[in-house]
Design brief:
Layout (H helix, E strand, L loop, with lengths): L14 H10 L15 H12 L5 H16 L9 H17 L9 H8 L9 H5 L2 H12 L6
Length: about 150
């Protein structure tokens, strides 16, 4: 997975929660007690399982069309590259696996697109597909696309 494909914005905690964090970390740090939750073999098996989730040619084309729409959206200087198509497909495969399916459904493609929301990306390449300004500019183009049945 491309390290730039996903970004999570957590925001800030409330002041009371921040005080609780300070209290909890006054004498030790949570990393001091960190224990592994998966082995390397577990992670590699999960990666293989995601790779084995089927994606139909129609859904691959839908992902490509979503990304391509960013390249012609008004106000977007540089649309998303084929790396965005790859990230969109791989994220949809992971979502399908999390849903217990061995194939991607049409609904998982836009969910994968929203999962990659990058508010700081502006109107650049990633912003065109995922970002605040780019999403506003490209939304109309993306909404016009026919979702495969």
């Amino acid at each position: 997975m491309d390290r730039f494909a996903m970004q999570f914005v957590l925001g800030y905690v409330q002041p009371e929660e921040e005080v609780a964090i300070l209290t909890a970390q006054q004498h030790n740090h949570p990393l001091d007690d960190l224990k592994p939750v998966a082995t390397l073999a577990d992670v590699l098996a999960l990666k293989r399982a995601v790779e084995n989730v089927r994606v139909s040619d129609e859904l691959k084309r839908y992902a490509v069309d979503l990304v391509a729409a960013t390249r012609t959206a008004a106000g977007v200087q540089l649309g998303a590259s084929p790396r965005a198509s790859i990230a969109l497909m791989k994220t949809a495969q992971a979502l399908a696996l999390f849903d217990g399916a061995d194939f991607v459904t049409p609904e998982q493609i836009p969910v994968a697109r929203r999962a990659g929301h990058r508010p700081s990306a502006g109107a650049g390449a990633a912003g065109a597909l995922f970002g605040r300004d780019g999403a506003r500019r490209g939304r109309g183009s993306c909404q016009k696309l026919r979702v495969p049945a």
